[in-house]
Amino acid sequence: MIQQPPTLFPEVTNTVRGRFYIVAGIVSVILAVASIAIFWWIFYTVIPAPAPPIQSATYVNYDPAGDYLQADSLAAMNAYIAANPQPQAVEVLKGLTTAEISAYMVGQVSGGLKVDCTYCHNIANFAQIDGYPNAAKKVTARKMMLMAADLNQNYTAKLPASVGGYQITCATCHNGQAAGWAAYPIEIMNTLPNDWTLPLELDYPGGLIVTGRKDISNVELERNQFTMYHFNVSMGQGCTFCHNARYFPSYEIAQKNHASIMLQMTKHIQETYVAPGGQIADGIMAGKKPSCWQCHQGANIPPGAAKPGQVPTMLSSTP
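RESULT FIELD:
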């Protein structure tokens, strides 16, 4: 049997080995700490932090602040409230005092469009219609309020309370823009045809039911895919937000029913208000079609939706 020769100076070898392990451990700790430090440095300096949600007592993720209201207009409004505690020439906001109407106008009409009172009113006489150049905008604003009441009472009212009870108001569609009609996002137009619009000529939900059917043409299938992609981008959600990925025809996920209600509402907006001859088919509304993006703009809950209890009762889901 061959025997290994004895190790010379065993105490020296053990010492070197121990020192090696100590140095290796220290180097490993330094590298680990450095790697973590570099990661967080990159995270905080190269990758921008997501913006915190906007806090507002009235709106979801929308800030009505700005310098669009002029001091002269606010002073004139206060004088008008003092002179007329009960409103004059009111057609929509009946039952409110002048002060209550003014608060709504400042917070949700001016606040939603970010425009001064003079955008619609003669501040020398807020009730004036005849002979005032901007009176047509005041008439249109009344129609818009009636439209919001219609949509809240006949469509958002169908959504369950668990969705949040949010209400449609000026900021929901206008989102701080007087024109108030957001274009389709570039993400959609890079993928869909440039002339694509939401197919509001269909009956919903049946018009988009194509899964598992053999009588559907390629044109109908493509239209369905385009529409679903529009949903994805408009609400920032994937397919499983509404669908059971194992069985797409099912309605077990509540959001699929909610989407059907919103499609019916969008079609109603097009046919009743926007199409030629519609109730507000003039000015900024002419030749345009509503879409999911118009209100949602990449968010599940539309930015500018009013929180429960913020919309005047006659314009809300529960008048």
